[in-house]
Each structure stands twice: as structure tokens, then as C-alpha cells.
């Protein structure tokens, strides 16, 4: 049995909102991502949210793609956080091109290691958030889990929360009168497990390669 985490030092989380809608447009993805951050806050985790489409994140698989690329500043926030929340809406049954851009930029972390050969992301936890009024949440979360784990993040048990609206209807998550019980429960579980796992990794991280 894993030991119980006893470290009470503050943890931090960063939510990357991969909506296609630039600010100040309303975003269902932002609403659910913020609910995850609020749930994490109940476990002593402070968090913030970045709407990626508001920034000039260049295509590529390097840490810095040159003058004007705004990914390095976002990456700095990712590396400072204990928990990454990657949030995306569903379009045509898939994650957005913005989310794919984030995954491609995170590929650069495969070349970044500490003095003991471990990826710099090895001590970090990742959660997935998916919204949409069409099916696709299970497929998208599977893609995100694999990609995030591949570049060194650890995904906790039940590490996703999502909402799928009724097929071929136009109701958005942000327009719901109240949060569905199933989604609220998934959000609470994901946040609880992520905070617990992040503290475990801080107390006893992965061994040297």
C-alpha cells in the first residue's frame, strides 16, 4: 500500500484552456476547467488558467520557436506548476488544434532532463478536461493521457472530468442551470486524486534513470 502523503506545502496548478474562441468570448471549457481549479483549491492547491488561443504559440516541437513565440512563457508556468490541467472542447469528435499544438510543443520536454537523467516533468501530475455537445470525451481523454504520460506527466486514477451534451443539440456546458451530478462527482474525484498524487511525488519522486 502506498504511504499517505503528509507534506502540507502549497501545491500549484495550471489549466491550459484549449478552446478555439479567443477572449473575451465565453467558453464552456473555461467553466469546467475553473471548476477543476476550484475543486483543487479545496485540497490546498492554488491555480490559474491560460487561454492558449490568446497567445502566439508557434508550430513546432522545440521549447522556443524563435522571435515572437509565446510558448516559452507558458512553458515556464507549466514547469512551475505541480499539476497541469489540459482542457479542450470537442470538435468533430476530436480535441482541438490548439490542444494538439500544446501536445506538440510539450514534445520538447523529451530532451530536457535533470542531473539524474529524469525528465523535468516526472514530478508533475496531469488531468484532462473535455466538454462538447457531441460524443468524443473517452477518445479525447485517451489521446491526452497517452501524450501527457509519454512526455513525463503522471495521470492519477480517474484523471478526467467531462461533459457531453445531447447529440445534435446546441446546449453548451456554460449555459447549464446547474452542474450535472456525474460531472461534479468526476471533477471532485479527479481533483482529490491529483492533489494526493502530487504530494506523494513531492515526498518521494521517481528514481534516477
TrEMBL record:
Residue limits of the NADPH-dependent FMN reductase-like domain? 23-160
What is the protein named?
A: Flavodoxin
> Which InterPro entries would you find in this protein's record?
Flavoprotein-like_sf (IPR029039), FMN_Rdtase-like_dom (IPR005025)
Q: Which Gene3D superfamilies match?
A: 3.40.50.360
- Pfam families reported in the protein's UniProt record: FMN_red
TM region(s), chain numbering: none
Amino acid at each position: 500500500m502506498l504511504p499517505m502523503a503528509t507534506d502540507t506545502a502549497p501545491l500549484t496548478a495550471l489549466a491550459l484552456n484549449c478552446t478555439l474562441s479567443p477572449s473575451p468570448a465565453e467558453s464552456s471549457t473555461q467553466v469546467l476547467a475553473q471548476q477543476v481549479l476550484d475543486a483543487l483549491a479545496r485540497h490546498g492547491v492554488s491555480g490559474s488558467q491560460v487561454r492558449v488561443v490568446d497567445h502566439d504559440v508557434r508550430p513546432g516541437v522545440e521549447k522556443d520557436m524563435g522571435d515572437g513565440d509565446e510558448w516559452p512563457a507558458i512553458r515556464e508556468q507549466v514547469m512551475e506548476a505541480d499539476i497541469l490541467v489540459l482542457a479542450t472542447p470537442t470538435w468533430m469528435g476530436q480535441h482541438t488544434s490548439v490542444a494538439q499544438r500544446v501536445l506538440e510543443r510539450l514534445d520538447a520536454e523529451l530532451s530536457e532532463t535533470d542531473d539524474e537523467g529524469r525528465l523535468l516533468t516526472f514530478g508533475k501530475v496531469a488531468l484532462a478536461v473535455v466538454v462538447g455537445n457531441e460524443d468524443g470525451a473517452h477518445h479525447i481523454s485517451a489521446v491526452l493521457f497517452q501524450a501527457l504520460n509519454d512526455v513525463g506527466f503522471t495521470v492519477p486514477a480517474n484523471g478526467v472530468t467531462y461533459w457531453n451534451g445531447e447529440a445534435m443539440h446546441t446546449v453548451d456546458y456554460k449555459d447549464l442551470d446547474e452542474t450535472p451530478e456525474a460531472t461534479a462527482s468526476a471533477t471532485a474525484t479527479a481533483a482529490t486524486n491529483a492533489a494526493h498524487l502530487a504530494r506523494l511525488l513531492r515526498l518521494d519522486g521517481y528514481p534516477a534513470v
